[in-house]
Amino acid sequence: MTSAAQVTREVVRIPERFPARRAWWMMFSGALLLVGLFFVSLGVLFARGPGVWGNNIPVNWGFPIANYIWWLGIGHAGTMISAMLLLAGQTWRNSLNRFAEAMTLFAAGVAGLYPILHLGRPWRFYWMALYPNTMDMYPQFRSPLSWDFFAILVYLIVSLMFWYIGIMPDLASARDRATKRRWQIFFGLGAMGWRGSAMHWARWRQAYRLTAALALALVPMVTATYALLLAGGPIPGWNSTIYAPYFLVGAIFSGFAIVSILAIGLRHFLNLGDLITLFHLDRLGMLLLVTGLMTAYGYLADAFTAAYSGSHELRTLMDRVSGPYAWSYWGAVLCNFVPLQLLWWRRFRTSPLALGLISLSVAIGMWLERYMLLVTGLYRDWLESSVGYFSATFWDWSLFAGTIGLFMMLFLLFVRFLPVISAFETKEAMDPAND
Amino acid sequence: MSEDNLDSAMAQVRAASGRRYWRTLDELVDRPEFRRKLRQKFPALFGTAAEFNRRDLLKCLGGTIALAGLDGCEREPDEEALPYVVQPEGMVPGEARLYASAIEMDGVAQPILGETRAARPIKLDGNIEHPACLGGSTPFIQAALLELYDPDRSGAPLFMGRTDDWARFDRTQAELRMRLDASGGKGFRLLTGPVGSPTMLGQIEALLARWPEARWHSWSPIADRRSAMIEQWLGTPAKRVLHLAEAEAVVSFDDDLLGPGPDQLWHANGWGARRRAYQEGQGAALLFGAEPSPTITGVTAGERLAASEPRMGVLLGGLAAELGMGAPVALTGRERAWVQSAGDALQAHAGRSLVSVGAHHAPELHRLALAINQRLDNVGTTERFLQSATTLQPAALAPLVGEMRAGQVAALFVLGANPVYTAPGELNFADAFARVPLRIHAGLHANETGARSHWHLPLAQDLEAWSDGRGSEGTAVISQPLVRPWLAVRSRHRLLADLMDDRRSDLALVQDQWSDELDEAGWEMALLTGRIPDSAPLPIAATPSATAPPLIPPRAGSTLHLSIRPDPSIWDGSYATNPWLQELPKPLTKLTWGNAIHVSPDLALERGLQNGDLVRLSVSGRSVIGPAWVLPGQARDTVLVHLGYGQREGGRVAENLGFDAYPLLGASGEVVIAKLDEEERLATTQHHFEMEEDEYIRFVETASDALPPEPPKAHFYPPLNSKPAWAMAIDLDLCIGCNACVVACVAENNIPMVGKEEVAKGREMHWLRVDRYYEGRPEDPNHAFQPVPCMHCENAPCEMGCPVNAAVHSPDGLNLQVYNRCIGTRTCSSYCPYKVRRFNWFDYTGEDAPEMKAARNPEVTVRSRGVMEKCTYCIQRISKARIEAKKEGRPIRDGEVQTACQSACPTQAIVFGDQSDADTAVSRRKANGRNYDLLPEANTRPRTTYQARIRKGTREA
Predict the structure, then answer these.
(1) Could you report how far apart the first and last alpha carbons of chain B are, in Å?
(2) Are residues B821 and B900 in the same domain?
(3) B757 with B891, same domain?
(4) Cβ of A386 under 8 Å from any chain B Cβ?
(5) Where are the alpha helices (DSSP H) in B2-161?
(6) How confident is the model at residue A402 (pLDDT cuts 50, 70, 90)?
(7) CB nearest to B839's CB, from A120, A144, A385
(8) What is the pLDDT of residues B30-66, one digit of tens each?
(9) B702 in a domain, yes or no?
(10) Which residues of B touch A130 (CB under 8 A)?
């Protein structure tokens, strides 16, 4: 059993005496390379136009929107773990919430780039915003895109607030323990004069819970707006009310997979085995299993609705399971649900390697699902004459790899310089008086 | 610098008194006498080398600045050209002017009305004042505009491949003239394509009269074995004219009457008129087609039979037997049924029916068809023969090649044709050509022939020269220039006149040709209206009866048969430089930017061929390699290839696309196809053609039938009541899939061409596409065409999706796209059930050549990168009509607004107007029981609707 002081020391000393410098540098340089690729892809995109991708008519939306939904989905898991479990009083979350929140922030930020990059004229993206202008124009409020724009903006702001409020007490601990001047200033600025008075704690608790409630409510709203992106149009395979709940569970599912991967990674490289314990992995595995089964239910419900409505919807379903993009459908089913079944056994849930691999499979499977939903919806819709095939180009992949690099870079910087685990909340959970 | 020059220079240095300093050997030998010598030996070097001193340079600079001001002046058409509509004094700047003129296709004049703005031609359409045009146009007429502005056109004479000037050619020409005068034209040969211009025929006649030893040869790769038969039969050359407007039953044996070609407009007009009359209850409109591979004619036919080329004779014999004109022949069940119903229809409409055989078939078939037509009393009504306006007949290509090879040709003047590329492989023209001591080529492009000639002369395009011609039905037209040439080009009349030292201007040449028929007022009238009244040659009154010849039975065996046809988009290759036609999806395959080896579904299955598999096609030792294309409806044992591709020279657009099928032309023998282990990515605009259970195309049995009524649907939004309510009706029963509307839309709306790679990615920009569907078995399907512009839905899903209000509805019911508001989210296109929206994935227009920019319609915005665009119902034309109507204080009249696709349609399948008024043409069309919405289940309330196809061509049961 670790003591309260040990916890603080263990967490807060990480930035100052980083335990895995070598591994960090290797990963960080890998991430930087990918970020380089990101900027090259961006340059090519801006210089030449969205034609560098594989998109066409009818597949107007390809990688950018699929990746957007995927990244945002990943982000949602952080909010869920942190806010939902906080409000539900599940204190075991305290070992996971900090980095999960950071993951949310970075994933949502990366996701938010995509809808802008995807525009034909990205330099005009602010026309989607509601702002007073000389053209006397408002956004078009019937469009799901307008709401999507608002939703992701609000979500980013609230996620940032939530994460920052949560990290503030730990920044103060780090400030107090820092021996070097530069670290003291760095953490001191971040702590915003936190002294740990009872009043501070009371105000903090109010703010934190309020923001948690806000963030939690935002998750289904955001998933609903981007579900509307698909469901809003009369496209067979898209035009369905199932998308909002379907995207919600799918998002959390993929997010938990990434949380698991990050937890296992941190646990391994930062020697945090006593804070992120096998118990946490077990819980993560259970959550993954549950959300996975809910997602599988979504697949079934979607298929049922399509079969029930018949005609074009049914044809799209048949096309998904047996058409030219069937690999993405069956790939998604295979990656998402088959290895997942191992998680029924505690042995696999508590094996870091097994859980990590299953999570990776889910991340890939959920990406395939996003791809499948977009491409099979668009490549063949109403008229047989307008069937057109999509194939991704190098720049599609390079931008995707670049955003992974961007995410990794941000996350590694966070790991390197900020307390990755909520020390005070972990201590809180250990305090028997707090029960 | 040669040795002896150096030697003589050294000698001079030695001989010179006193000291002489020299810096380089070049300077030493660079003396006036040496320069003279050099100029004699290598004149081309002197045309280009600039010799300037400072003073000359300054003079030139001053001159350039002064002349630059002149360039600002508008280039007017020739003063003598007269606008179609009488204008008030002077020109209103910015106003369009229409000129009646003509362009030529394979010697047949296509009467046009050319719209010019600021003295730039920007749009061509058929001239309805000319009897050969009842309205509409063809893709070739539409695209002739771009040919004018082709940046790769030759702009200066080339001597041995180097830019030279006309003055030097004039000297060569003068020498040649002296030689020819001395020898009576011995060894001089003129080679042209088909010639229809009376002025040019007059010039050739004069040339042959002046130099009796000279010969005129003509070559067209489009086989015509019918004219010779007719000449033999009548004893005099005659022009055959078909009047489809009067033909209630037409039986075509591999004759693509409605398909691309010089008579397409005339025939399609006739068919459209006949079919509309049938719809209104006047007579029948029956079309039967037997053909080896689907053509526009065959797929329009109510009853189509797929049969290989050698089978045509048998079928024709069967038809003759059916009509009691010969012994019965052995036919299959399917063939017999077809022949019987064709025979019945012909007999039922005797005197108003027609049998026609493709011009490439053997003379015996034409003779038999003629006998049938005579028997049915069709000659003189649906099939007429006109006296040939000239007795001058050109010689063929083959004897010319023989003479060239034998060294009997001293000078060959190739005017307009490209025989090095288009001559049949067996003639080996290029080799023989190389033996001719003086080779002169005149053409629009420095093509294969130009590159192998001593002189390549740039020819004026039809729109920048005076000329004349005869339309499909014989009436003559004066072709007046719409614009002054901006390149150093000469017209074909000028070239021939210069050769004979005839100093008359082009205009005078044409005027003198018609001086007997036209006085001054008549000339003006001919220019204004675009026709010379009563100028059609007289019909041949008494025709001798044609005897039915015994038909040669086809070779037995199951070998493959090769059909070689001109390409539907770029014809024999003469339009290969035209991007509008290259990117035009071919009516039946929807392929662009290339040709293919077309095989039947059965053959593909047997040989394991799929679209895009590379195939080697060999006939008697000559072979080509091209991608396979499986074409449903093609006769089982037929292999079809299109001419016109695989050009090696002649401009960036034409070069290195597809494969050259000319080596196979004229080859006979075993046809062998072998699959290679490679694939080629073909650029097609439509991948799927099956209708499955959908009713994109609807059918009724006869013209009096109606479709079952559509149950009314609930709508979330209130109905859109606007006045006017612009709407379009497209009658699928009249649409023949000719693509004229597609090119007209491109020309009107500045639609960019994107090239093969982009089309293959699915990024073509056409606002209007013609979808094609199959129904039934792949071996023998029913075909249907469906032009799809924007539907201008009243409940438009695109408008709901746009976050920035770029897709909005106008008060008069148009679905608008505001380009400068669009940020390119592409939601509108994702939500569009018809996928009619097009996106600028790159900057497709910014780097266009200045010439191409000049071809643009100034009334239509050129779209930038990253914005969505689509059909606007030609909003610029609506605005123009609205402004005119407002000025006159009246509502817009019905028919005042014609969309570009509507005015281009040769069968009047497209009608546009105000549907809020029940008395407009479009409302009457929509009141028709055949009216239906495309995708009613999408519940979009489209303003564009369709009229169902009618399966039968007669009201009788």
Answers:
(1) 89
(2) yes
(3) yes
(4) yes
(5) 3-15, 25-29, 32-41, 43-48, 54-71, 139-148
(6) very high
(7) A120
(8) 667 766 776 666 655 555 445 557 777 777 777 767 6
(9) no
(10) none
